[in-house]
Design a protein that fits this description.
Peroxisomal Thiolase, Chain A, domain 1, single chain, 2 domains, 332 residues, 4-stranded mixed β-sheet, globular
Length: 332
């Protein structure tokens, strides 16, 4: 049987560090309030003069390629997960193709928010298994900072979201690498975490920027309590689903990398699974919630820090807007 495996992983975050103290200087909040509710101490914001979703993705991709011993010309297909593309359309996949100097290869865009990278990984896994492609670039990248309401009105989301990019290279393997992926959604809760505009299902006058006076719906809305309540349930469900599908137990997990949504959620899941600190990787403290980029950034950092070794069982899990949730089990 043909399998796929991760042969290289990389990430990139912007240079500008935004501390809780800085946010406290421009809105009614403080370090203790932010840390208690999110676990975040600082995050990274882009420089709009030089950073784009596509060029951050390219930097992460080149690092992943370098670590895999490959070059850009080896890439046969791109799967790009983002909800903050550089343009309303086209998607950022073709822009990344251009950044990497590639011609005519396919580029597929995934818009599944916090679960986006695992959805993208699952799509790439299927393409490898069928033999359609031999080398696939999977990317999660986001720019949240330029859409954040940096006032007291928007503080519940302003303190959380940030920017960054992560990338993985998939290739075929004779031995199991990606053991399984599990994808779910429940659209009944779509409006509990969303950005309403610019949506297409509007009267013409509401889609014409020169006629828009109220920009409220262009900002992130999040019902935090609803998101937390559903996240802690779905995280556990989808992790157990992955373990059961492979006849494994929670004690078999060498490293759990959850989507970096909120440190309280990650700690709740860790406690429920009975995992030690050495078996869970979190970096939300440094980077905030980078949506589709959070898992590949964390995966890349964990690998670089020597926390992932050959034959380790890695569990990825995510929950977010949609609602969508997903998991993947990887034998490294």
């Amino acid at each position: 049987m043909r399998y796929s495996k991760v042969v290289g992983i990389g990430h990139h975050v912007p240079e500008t560090v935004i501390t809780n103290e800085y946010l406290s200087s421009i809105m009614d909040t403080n370090n203790d309030w932010i840390v208690e509710r999110t676990g975040i101490h600082e995050r990274r914001y882009i420089d709009p003069a030089k950073d784009t979703v596509a060029n951050m993705a390219a930097k992460a991709s080149r690092l992943a390629l370098q670590r895999a011993g490959l070059t850009e010309k080896d890439i046969e297909f791109i799967v790009f997960a983002t909800i903050t593309p550089d343009y309303f359309f086209p998607g950022s996949g073709v822009l990344l193709q251009r950044e990497l100097g590639l011609e005519s290869i396919g580029a597929l865009d995934i818009r599944n928010a916090c679960s986006g990278f695992i959805y993208a990984l699952s799509v790439a896994d299927q393409f490898i298994k069928t033999g359609m492609y031999k080398t696939i670039l999977v990317v999660g990248a986001e720019i949240q900072s330029t859409a954040i309401d940096m006032t007291t009105r928007g503080r519940n989301t302003a303190v959380i979201f940030a920017d960054g990019a992560g990338a993985a290279i998939l290739q075929p393997s004779e031995k199991p690498g990606i053991l399984s992926t599990h994808l779910h959604s429940d659209g009944r809760f779509a409006e509990e975490l969303y950005v309403r505009d610019p949506g297409s299902s509007r009267p013409r006058e509401e889609r014409q920027p020169e006629q828009i006076l109220d920009t409220t719906h262009f900002k992130v809305f999040m019902n935090g309590s609803q998101v937390f309540k559903h996240a802690v349930v779905r995280f556990m469900e989808v992790i157990n689903e992955a373990l059961n599908a492979n006849s494994l137990k929670k004690d078999d997990i060498d490293l759990l990398i959850p989507h970096q949504a909120n440190l309280r959620i990650s700690q709740f899941i860790q406690e429920k699974l009975g995992l030690s600190d050495d078996h869970v990787y979190n970096n939300i403290m440094r980077y905030g919630n980078t949506t589709a980029a959070s898992i590949p950034i964390a995966l890349s950092e964990a690998w670089a820090e020597g926390k992932i070794k050959e034959n380790d069982l890695i569990c990825l899990a995510a929950f977010g807007s949609g609602f969508t949730w997903a998991s993947a089990l990887i034998r490294w």
